[in-house]
Amino acid sequence: MSLNVSVGTAPINWNNVDVPGYRPPTPYEQMLDEMAQAGYEGTEIGRDFPTDPNKLLDDLARRGLRPASQYCPTNLRVRGNHAADIELVTRTAKFLSSIGVDVVVVADSGSPERWAMAGHVPDDAEMSEDEWLSMAEGLHKIADACAQLGVRVAFHNHAGTYVETERELDKLMSLTDPYKIGLCLDVGHLLYGGGDVLDVCKKYGDRIIYVHLKDVDMGVLDKCKQENLGFREALYMGIFTEFGKGGLDFRGFFNALDEHNYSGWIIVEQDTTKLSPLESARHNRQFLRENFGI
Question: What is the SS3 assignment for 192?
């Protein structure tokens, strides 16, 4: 294996707004300090990060960190939302371009109903054909706007949204132009939604331009399915575990990335941790170094 990648992390590992009250928030400066202490090369941009590009770049550079990307939830299922969502993502892409980042991560925003059935989505919960077409059209518009800024769009499959299952991802990939819409493959969310990571890599390896790396506690996942628990409950229960303690075939996944000459960011995410965020961050970074040399 000869993966040439950058390994970063994300603010969600310290401060996750999806689990209110889970733990006291980590201040911005402390969070960056801990990212650097744990050995990461960079970070995604959080919602409470500085909006001044020079200030942000200086804060990161002083710790040896680089900016990776930023996550943008959208509701392109509704055509009436297109203008606002295009403006949101384009504004984000403009900021990312100003700090030297060339990928913006876009996802569906989901709904309370989908959050409740995440991990056990029935077939009749999928979008209508018109909603699928609306999402694809919206993504193409966003891609065209971002391309003018030198920024590519990476669509993020996400539990609790309308692109969670492998079948839903297949549908979106079939409706979108591979030259315009890349894939931010979140292996944890794919496993959570019942998908096959290696199968998705085989089908869409050339479209993967960004990676969110998680491991999944299969015992928690089984409990969530048996008891019909939603995604928020799963997060509180620690659905995403420290690397090597869950069900992800890391070696198979990295081999698949290597076969497609992947050379982008691998962003380590866990969302909620039973250890302190710093302890989990260190464990996960060390796991990748010791087992895979990255």
Answer: helix
